[in-house]
Amino acid sequence: MSLLTAMFLSLAITTTTTTVLLLLTPAAATALQVMMTQLRRPSGSGGCFPGEMDALLEFKEGIADDTTGLLASWRPEDGQDCCRWTGVRCSDRTGHIVKLNLGSRESINPFAMRLFGEISHSLLSLHHLQHLDLSHNSLEGPTGDMPEFLGSLKSLRYLNLSGIPFHGLVPPHLGNLSNLRVLDLSYTANSYSPDISWVTRLRRLRYLNMGDVNLSMV
After folding, report:
1. 44-209 — its CATH code?
2. In this predicted model, what pLDDT tens digit does every residue of 94-106 receive, in sequence order?
């Protein structure tokens, strides 16, 4: 009998998943958790979670101009797997979106902006997002400022908003990102911060770049 067969037989004759996991090696337990996650994913979403796909499509709706077709693969047709869309990466273990890389640094001209529009609140539906790179695009929050709601993406470890022409206050709400390791706000020349005490709450931060942010009032 294979390990996989034994695992499912054990699952069938016990009353709780927890009991099964206690009988397995760590590697086997991880494999079982991955398989159970896969079974929970609706097949109609092509392998990604429908709510997360909807969040990406709503983000795309806020983009008024996609000069290089960066988001061309983001289509809602049946069978589309949003984990395969450009700039999107999902966890191999859970299937949730963990990385959104839409920065323009990879283009032939590293300073050529590709996306023009608004940063949608729909990103708040990506509860497992760890890496967000929107750098060097012409984006803004609902009021033109750096969006306060980014401070609610509690799973973020990497946030790069460099080179985005924001206007106004750098939101102290970013201090709520307790898991953040990297924060790059450089070259956001029209933004300012009169108080940077919120940075002290980022206990896990390893890299901070606020070059060109107006700190003259600190």
Report:
1. 3.80.10.10
2. 999 999 999 986 5
